[in-house]
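User: Hey, my collaborator sent me this sequence without any context and asked if I could get a structure. I don't really work with proteins. Can you help?
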Amino acid sequence: MTPTPRTPTRTHRPGSPGADHWPIPTRRGRVRDERGSTVVEMVILLPALTLILAMVIAGGRLALAHQAVQSSAATAARTASIARTHTQAASSATTTAGTSLREQRTRCRSITVTVDTTGFTVPVGTPADVAATVTCQLDLAGLVPGLPGTMNVAATARSPLDTYRER
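Assistant: No problem. I've predicted the 3D structure and written it out in structure-token form, which is a compact way to encode the shape of the chain:
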């Protein structure tokens, strides 16, 4: 007579809690219960998923800051190109860049604005431009362990000066 293979038996009556639970036989023929394994899996996966979420948030914050700094640099360059003198251009560009970043709610620890006004020294009738470089020290502290507390985001924009305007 050939031995009949062992089939797992239900440990619960139909309709009772856990009725869909089938025990898993081991090599030695004993039945192993897998209840509680989901909790262990979640304990292992939850920190990894939290880290991934924090990295996505940090990447989003970095992308938004880069866009805000580019926009602020363009606004600062345009403001400087409208000014009448190079000193007025530098001060108005610095003020405009700071205001633009605050309005966009960019979390900068410090803002540095550098304005190149050498275009104001070019003779009238010669094409010239003004450049504004905005650097934001972006605050990333507390988002993800291991990320630096700050990261520099910089952008430069140029705006032409009116060729025939008095300088």
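In plain terms: The helical segments are 37-82, 86-103. You can pass these tokens on to your collaborator as they are.
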